[in-house]
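Lay summary. Proteins are chains of building blocks that fold into shapes, and those shapes determine what they do. In this project we predict the shape from the chain. Here is one chain we studied, written as its sequence of building blocks.
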Amino acid sequence: MVIEQGPFDWLMKRGMDWLGKGRLAKTSGRLHLPGLQARVEVIRDRWGVPHIYAENELDLFFAQGFVHAQDRFFQMDFQRRLVAGRLSEIFGSVTLVVDRWMRVVGMQRIAEQEIEKLQEDHRQIAEAYSVGINAWLKFRHLPVEFSLLQYDPEPWRPVDSLGWSKMMAWMLSANWESELMRLELVDKLGPEQAEQLELMEEENWPLVLNLPDALELQQNMLRLARQWTGPGAGEGVGSNNWVVSGARTSTGKPILANDMHMLLSTPAIWYENHLAGGELNLTGISSPGLPMIISGHNGQVAWGFTAGFADVQDLYEEHLRFREGDEALGDEAPGREAPAEEDGSVGTKTQVEFEFEGKWYPAEVRQEEIKVRFGASVFEEVITTRHGPLLTPLLDGPTPPLALCWTAADTSGGTFLAIARMSRAKNCAEFREALRTWNTPVLNTVYADTEGNIAYSLTGKVPIRRNGEGKLPAPGWSGEYEWAGFIPYEEMPHLYNPPAGYIVTANNHTVGPDYPYYLGRDYVCSDRAERIAELILSRRVIDPAYVQEMQFDQVSPTAQTIAALISRLSVNDPRLARMVEFMRVWDGRLSADSPAAAIYEVLVRELWHAIFEHRLGDLMPRFKGALLNEVAMNNPWGHHAWEWLRRELVRSRSPWFDLGGGETRDDVLRLALERTARFLTERQGPDIQNWAWGRFHQLKFVHILGRVKPLEATFSRGSFPVGGDVNTIWATASPIDRADADEGMVGPPFRFIADLSDLNRSLGLLAPGQSGQVGSPHYDDQVDAWFTGGYHPMLYEREDVLKEQEACLILLP
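And here is the predicted shape, written in a compact code that computers can read:
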């Protein structure tokens, strides 16, 4: 794929590549490293994947830290600064809003408390990993980014790793933003209409614990679509994972597939690793900055995750009062400027109190100094009640004091313990027991073993609320809406060898209305889960090649349904009639070069605007999925909007279709189609045949420094036209009305397929590549494969690793 560049861009890229190559990791030869106990061998295969062979586990994690730093240290340093709220020390005031949020949420403080509670053997793992990183730092072959930004990194600490684990949990927890959005929708529409926008008709959802029965709705939709798209049409973000039992596979053993959807960036958030030492021999993806393997296999069990989207965050409105000594100063909202002392520090004699069950208690008040490059320090006052830190100073507009309660504030170290035990599990039963201590984030875990078992567990702590469901901010002073513990592990959703012979999760709803506990309501549109199940059921025997095809599938059931509705729409305009014909013969496949896909994607957004813009006003962008701010990582409302549209369009009449003149569904569809025609003609010309979804839908693997235009061609890769959308198995989520591809796209950086009949034949695909070092041959060598399905073998047996050896580095004490 060709990246268009001007002469200056080309020269800059060549120069930076040359500079970067001089700093590349040493991957061959021998190195003596203090801190090692014995010899370690690091063999890199031709995809840049390091296979680490050590005599003991502490040396193994030392070496993992070393190779993570070799390939990804700038990424790791950026991540730990993000967590600690220290980006402004490097980037200046442009990152101040992010630092303020991080200081208030306090992930670094939580990590500092948790590191003290880790079991001794797990603390030793974190320490060995850190020592390995720092051993690499002593060589001073820093990535070129450090020269451009002109700063030197600090030594790595174990707490930096735990801090990043909290950030990973934050990325997959979004309920606090949902609560704010619901509050604003209730204010704008009233409680009844606001509730309709996310009403979950659970009997029609594809539930993880009852997916085959729920497929009836999807099959009805397909029949409707095929009725209007002609014979044979349609035949044969978040994350996806599924597993098929040996009774359904060509190998006689389970096949497991996983692709976790995160921001598609340069470098990728994941890093492929093979770790062999002591009692461990596991391969899969790791997260630079964290020891161990997150998703992969250990020779006996394979596993993968998707976000569970359980409700693990609540906002509490607090009653506060401020006192100076014994004098009450009255109620006041937080966020005022703190007085500066003579030495420049910030102090306050004011005591903040919060009310709880009729009594007043002292809140914790801290003054956080945020150092700002090229400017003066900024001081952030952080007030924490029994529920958590107050977010109010960071929210726009007049907002009451709101405290964030979140399960990740737990400092037991349970997630770290679970990952360590998962790595040693010999079968599904042991793996499930290993998950028992997992705290956060809540994940759908699918796993299988070489004995032929398949299983599913919803993993993580989900709170039990005394009252309500945590849909809206609760009165924190009453005591009536407190958490009353967590759902017992034995009662969390779980499947073991289900009769259907397969398990599918795709961020969809997990359980039916009979489940005794509330899990949440911020699930995604059910398209991906339905499509995965449809593809599984369409084949009598499934082989690994077919699973590869499934991961690259771009068919949307919602697109098929809406295309069927458009197909029977009566229109007089010849141009609209031609668009209707395109939709009639379309199979719902969102290919990058498809005119029908372009019509569909624009039409959906025009439908939203026609129905909601006059009702929601400035809430419209967030209803479609826009983020509240730079720190919000996930907005479930975009998924609610898709599910609402799919559900509502089944009806020919609805109050929502009435735009003021008694309009019906078909009237609104016709209006949206007219607006779609205008939009596409203005953007892509009058010839419908030349319209293409990929001309709007562009992917750029963005590097943090690639956002600076002179450095874009050096560090970022793209833009590339890409198919799919948020609701296809090959998920590519981004708004159509964004300015350009620099805003990023969510999708699967890593695709993983495990064949439990021979785990050495497992497959992986990581884009853009293994290395984060400009000038490395593995910086972007998997981009083309990411588009074309070019998986590579995840080598496991040593003899196979040696056949594909690219380099070998011996680490010695």
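What the prediction tells us: The two ends are 44 Å apart (CA to CA).
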